Every structure is written in C-alpha cells, then in structure tokens.
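Researcher: Structure prediction, please.
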Amino acid sequence: MHDGTLLAALDLGSNSFRLEIGRLHHGQIQRIEYLKETVRQGSGLDENGMLSPAAMQRGWDCLARFGERLRGFAPHQVRAVATQTLRVARNRELFLAKGLEVLGFPIDVVSGPEEARLIYAGVARMLPPSDERRLVVDIGGRSTELILGRGLRSQVVGSYPLGSVAWSMAYFPEGRFTVQAFDAAHAATEDLLADTPGRYPRESWDVAYGSSGTVGAIGDLLAGLGEPKGLITRKSLVDLRARLLQAQSADKLKLDGLKEDRRPVIGGGVAVLGAVFDLLGIEQMQVAQGALRQGVLYDLVQREAPSTDIRTATVQALATRFGTDAAQAARVRRTARTLFDQVMLQAEPEAARLLDRAAQLHEIGTSIAHADHPRHGAYILHHTDAPGFSLQELRRLAELLLGQRGKLRKLSLDLEDARFVVQLLCLRLAILLCHARRDPVPPLPQLALVGGSFSLRVGAAWAAGFPQSAHLLRGEAEAWKKTPWDVNVVLG
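Model: Predicted structure follows.
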C-alpha cells in the first residue's frame, strides 16, 4: 500500500459497533474519523443462543449508516470483524448475509485468540517503542481477553466468555447494585478465570494496560473523582464499587464522566475488572489508547504482502507441525494456481491466496491416518488456533480439504458458490495431475468455465502419453455428476 491510502476497520462488539478510518503515512496510520454507536447486540442474545430480530435490526441499521460512509472504498481497504456475540449466535449467518448487503463489505467473525492477538497489536502500535513486558486486559461486552506481549508481538493470548454486558444482565438485573450481587459476580469471574494466575503470573509482566470501552469508561469515572487521568489502581476500584453500592442502582448513579450508553453495563464492568485485579495481582493499570480496531487497521496493511501477512506464517507452521511433504504441496499449489488463473479472468487475490493455502495444507490429515485424510485435515482446521484467519476463512479451508478428492454429493459443501467451486475443482485437478508426486508434464489441460459448465481440454497426444492421468481426469468429470456443475473432458 502506498502513502495516502485510506483504510477502515469496523469492530462489531457486543455493546458497541465502531468504525475507525485512517490514512497510511510512512508505515503509521493517522486517524481521519471515528464513529461509534451503542447497539447492545449482546443483550439481544437469548438462552438458546439466538439473536432477537430487534437486536439484528439494530445492527443492520448501524451497518447501513457505516456503509454510506464507506462508499468508494475498495475491498482491500476495509475489514469488519465481529466478536463474541456473533461467535456464539446460532443464527449469525442470517445476520452476516444481510450485514454484507447493507454494509457493502463482508464481516469476518474472529475467534477469541485471534481477537486477543488483534487487540494486542492495536495497543502496542499506539504505545511508544519499549522493551517492557506487557499484560493487556480487554473487557468487552461478552468476552474478556488477556494477553502477554513484548514490543509488537503477543506471546500468550486468551479469551474468556465474560464481560460487562453478560455480567450486568446476569448479576445486576435492572441495574441494582448490592453486596451480594458483586460477591456473586466476583466468584463467577474467578471460576471462569481459574487458570489465569498460572498463564499470566505476576513475574511475567512489568506493566498492565487496559484497553477498549469498559476500562476506558472506568478510567473516565475515576478521573472525574480526582484520580490521575488514565490510571486505575486497586484502591480506586474499591472506592468506585463503594460508590455504586451507595447509589444502589444504575439510574441513581451520579458520577462525572458516566456516559449514558455505559450506565446499564457499568456494574458488570467494575465487577469483572476488580476480579481480574485480584486474580492477577494487579496494583495499577494504565488505560491504553489502542484497541481491536487499530490492530485490524495495521493487519490490513500487513495482509497486502505475503512476507508480512501473518496467515503465511500460520500456514507454514501448520504444515511443519503436521509433517506435510513440502515439495508435493508446492507442486500442487503451482498447478492449482495455473488452472485457477485460466478460469478467473478478473483478479481474485484473496480467493487465489486461499487456494494456495489449501494446497499447502491439503495433506495435513495424513499425520493422523492416510485413510480418509481429507476428513482428518478438515477436523484439524476446525479445531486449531490459526493466527490471522477469521472463522469463515478457516471453514472454507476446511471445506476445500474435505472435498479434495472422492465423491462430492455426500459431502456438506457449498456448491452454490461459484468462486468456491472453482477453487475446489482446481485443487482436485491439481492433486490428480500431481498423483505421481512429480510436476505434471506440460502442456497442462486447459480449463474454462461457461455458465455452469467446465470444459477441460486435453491434448490427444498428452492423453495417450499419460493414460493414468487421463483416466483420473475422466473419473473427476464423473464425480461432478449429480451436482449443479458439469465438468467435461474434451480431447483435441
């Protein structure tokens, strides 16, 4: 990306949706505009994990307004990420489909560890260069992320299903503050964070930082009470809790700096932060300026080059961990990309990169067993932490690995998506053409797509010289029967 490029990050949190627009300047991103709307989507999640129609509509209305601001932005300039509420919502696909329509850009649902990685990246980028060891705490509406890191690199990441919205609904219904409610919220927090003292021991970090809305809101309240701006201490938290108890309810709370959108969730936020202080031995915490959205902006820049895209390193680490044949993966990748470029006449860089990664990882399942290794590979991707990837990207990779060979009609694959079908066919053909674990002898078959039909043109001399490969290609055409797509092998 060149200097002057505008970039936009959307953070679709459980309490608020945020849009940050920045301009790239000599490797730094300068803020141009920041928009925030209190959507409270997390409060619309019922006990069955379903988002209510009203909660979804609030989200869509906000996305439509953000989408108007983003008109004219190219896809590579924008990334929207969704966190805990949409991670657990059983009807999230409905929200995401219409969200894409009204926003104009896809929405990536990120895992908890990936959210934590991006949060740390945002915090670190907004701090002066330092060799200090950092603990970063981010309390969201329905999840809390804890990260240890140094410099620009996170080292230990964790995500836990508790936050200001969830805890306020569970322990402070109707905004009532009681000692019993705070004690119950504290105990529940300690229960969910039971492993954290061992993962984040006091001797492993020098400075504690708190990021995002809950910590920022508490910092503002404490500053209004005369505490140093941007600093939260154990004593000041105890004093703030006493003020909430004195007020007895959120609607009676009179504090300078308390914004109306924070009033309904302040009890849960104070309870969670107090428990985190106790568990991790924190005496004081600095309020950080950076957060998830800044991490997403810098991640956008890094995604533009394979050498800096963390997904490249993640794929390589997975391939090494599961002992894949690097030479075979490389030849399958080259062959699949050649076929893909024949079909996709318009540039599809992200689709091409996803195909590359599927080729690199297509044999990871053999580390479990060669028999049915496509299913094993898909299982690995469904159950691994993969820095840089959204849940949708991992699902697509898993589907490509699952469908890499054999019958298609019995697999749960999205064969209505033309881009995915092209990726899948190219991967399957490349694996067949490299079946002898050597580069296929040129010329490669020519692949074309017209309507819903693929034609695979094979030279007669090539087919005669490589009868096994020709036989496998005819079998591939047979495998696509009873799907919405035709694959025809043409000699000549």
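Model: The two ends are 44 Å apart (CA to CA).
Researcher: Thanks, that helps.
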